[in-house]
Design a protein that fits this description.
Elements: E1 8-12, E2 14-18, E3 22-26, H1 29-38, E4 42-46, H2 55-59, E5 64-67, H3 92-108, E6 112-115, H4 117-125, E7 130-131, E8 159-163, H5 168-172, E9 178-181, E10 188-189, E11 196-202, E12 207-212, E13 219-222, H6 235-255, H7 257-270
Parallel strand pairs: 1-4, 1-5, 5-6, 6-13
Antiparallel strand pairs: 2-3, 7-10, 8-9, 8-11, 11-12, 12-13
Helix pairs in contact: 3-4
Length: 271
């Protein structure tokens, strides 16, 4: 498959502000490389421009949409939550970009894979709510990143999740009932959004993965980080990215883009 035939996967950026250099739209390299190597697609960084563009026109040009993790939290007014504590990092333009894109992707059959913050965004986009500090909830463990170990070590397996029998992840693993995952989050799903099905849950009752009911393509989100090089060694991570990539290729083929490009090159060569 040539570079021109690779499915195009939109990856919305986060916005960070440098006091001297101004604003930057950024996506971590681990997400870009996971799309390119594990899903075998072409990542396209989507600037966080909110309502500047029509989300339906944008997703119409894409073969897939992947939502990344981020140091920022979804603004609580998006789901009717209490105001955040002072010092909480938010990214309102990312919210204004990703939430409409999720709706547009689901309505138009664009494959969707969401990770960490993206998992929370999907829940909010479908009417759910979030725990802003899940470790403070009764009976919940501390799921935050372990700051006492080197950065890459934080992506190693940390706790088990139970996979829903008969679900998407259950099928991708060939019928496994549990898996080990990493954990680097403070927020988590509280009330589950409409049309979402629980795919995995931690032993302390945190919803770790969901799929979207009633869609005909891949639509999955996970609270952990399968995109890191360490996690990409796990069979479950490889299976999720492979399934996402296959769904993106199916969408691209259904739009006839690859065939049209190959045919066009053939005609130009003959001329």
């Amino acid at each position: 498959m040539s570079e021109q035939d690779l499915p195009l996967v939109g990856v919305p950026a986060c916005v960070t502000v440098d006091p001297e250099s101004g604003a930057f739209h950024k996506v971590g390299e681990k997400y870009i490389m996971a799309v390119a190597k594990a899903a075998r697609c072409m990542p396209l960084v989507v600037p966080a421009l909110g309502e500047w563009y029509d989300p339906y026109e944008l997703v119409a040009r894409l073969d897939g949409l992947m939502l990344t993790g981020s140091p920022s939290n979804v603004e609580p007014h998006r789901y009717g939550g209490e105001p955040s504590r002072p010092g909480t990092h938010h990214d309102p333009v990312r919210d204004a970009t990703t939430l409409p894109l999720i709706t547009a992707a689901l309505e138009t059959g664009v494959p969707l894979f969401a990770i960490c913050r993206g998992h929370q965004e999907l829940n909010v986009a479908l009417g759910g709510t979030l725990h802003q500090n899940v470790h403070e909830q009764p009976g919940k463990n501390d799921h935050r990143s372990d700051q006492t170990v080197p950065f890459d070590e934080r992506y190693r397996p940390r706790h088990k999740v139970r996979l829903t029998q008969g679900g998407v992840l259950y099928g991708l693993t060939g019928g496994a009932t549990e898996a080990m995952v990493n954990s680097l989050h403070a927020q988590a799903i509280d009330r589950l959004g409409d049309r979402l099905e629980v795919e995995a849950m931690s032993e302390d009752g945190v919803i770790e993965a969901v799929s979207v009911r009633g869609v005909e393509t891949f639509a999955l989100s996970v609270q952990w980080h399968p995109e890191h090089a360490i996690a990409l060694e796990w069979p479950l991570s490889q299976a999720m990215f492979a399934a996402f990539g296959e769904a993106c290729r199916h969408r691209r083929a259904s739009r006839g883009i690859g065939a049209a490009r190959r045919g066009g090159r053939g005609r130009n060569h003959a001329a």
